[in-house]
Amino acid sequence: MIATVLWERDLHQRGGASAFAVGPDCVVLHERHTRLVCLERADGAVRWDVPLGSWPRGIVLAGDRVLVLPQAPDLLSCVDLQTGALLWSAPTPRWTGNLVVQSGTVVTGGWRGYTPMSGLDLADGGVRWTTPSRVTSVRTLAWAGGVLTGSGDEAVLLDPVDGSDLARWRLPAPLAGPDAKAFVPVGAGRVVAVCEGGSLVTFGIGGDEPTRLGSYDPFGAVGYVHGSVWMLRPGRGVLAVNPGDGTSTWSVEGDRRMVADLLPYAGGLLVGDVNGGMRRLGPDGRTVEGCSLPGRRLDALAGDGDGGLFFAARGTFGSFALASEARRSAMSGAGTGALSVRASARQDPENGLA
Fold first, then answer.
1. Hey, is 164 helix, strand or coil?
2. Residue 51, phi then psi, degrees to nearest 5
3. Terminal CA-CA length for the chain
4. pTM score of the predicted model
């Protein structure tokens, strides 16, 4: 397998600290501590570059708009995706966290119990509703036409328009902490909740009660791909389970620390490690082939579902493509070796390229 870096941009901060969102034709990311930039996916060219606060707790793309919730200043901002123009901003209480968009409403708040939750009109930032007092919420999720929230042993689906309850579930175990992903959608109307003690619980829209799938070794990142819920276990690789009954479907042992996320790729999966190594796995978790991005310490991988691949590394963000060695050899007329990286179109915003 051959990895080709298509373009790469210096962030002037650690890649893992740079929140980003991938859109159909662009990538929006935070860099240089206080800047928000929009890059063309095709070549990394800068579409716009605007000042917009430090260390965002969330960046969400909603049609032709970008919602950004920085740690400072205490403002929720809505930016035009094409031009970078500020469409509106709304003051937020200090320590506001959690950001989702559902049904034309921007829902924020509840992070660690520091603030109320609020719903704002996506069109103009007008407040539609606010809880009367501070509430505690795990990381929220736009799901099943509502906003899924919760704390302790309860999960609640809110109506984004008025904040009322659409559904409520009592869980067999308390939800995990406020900073990690709490809910993983696994199909139409069903979700898996991450609970304390490494346990997973499934529930959905309908009359069935929440069901514990099982308890597992400690894990960090979690997600859903190709019909399985995967758990990234620090230093121990990946375990995937059936979201219906919790039984193991496949596992991958890791001799180096893997990075989030696991990406659907070529009918299987793509996984990376901090040293720049990447492996393509079959749907059963078996390694098919591998390669690397030499000289890069990876913090994260991302994809968009239509073949685009991106990486956040130590100090850079970029786009890359993969091709099998056989295909590369056929195109070039000669073998090229197992590992290859094309010289990248590297951009430095402090050298006049932003």
1. coil
2. -80, 135
3. 32
4. 0.90
